[in-house]
Write a structure and sequence with these properties.
Layout (H helix, E strand, L loop, with lengths): L6 E3 H8 L3 H9 L6 E3 L2 E5 H10 L12
Antiparallel strand pairs: 1-3, 2-3
């Protein structure tokens, strides 16, 4: 049985990815986080959540080296 969700509500996305609700809505508004609407409910597909996470800049001391 698959226990991993295919989509998150905004609240579940925020819990899973460690960001605040306001930040999630700002990312959606800016077009950096794709979402779907099911009636009034906003859903974020796991593949879109992972793509958003992968698009974030890398951190660390060597992150900006060579730029």
């Amino acid at each position: 049985m698959n226990s991993s969700p295919n989509a998150f509500t905004v609240a579940d996305f925020c819990d899973a990815y460690g960001i605040r609700r306001n930040s999630a809505y700002l990312e959606m508004k800016a077009g950096r986080l794709e979402y779907r609407k099911a009636g009034r409910k906003t859903l974020i597909r796991k593949v879109d959540a992972d793509a958003w996470l992968d698009s974030l800049p890398k951190g660390g001391p060597d992150a900006n080296e060579g730029k």
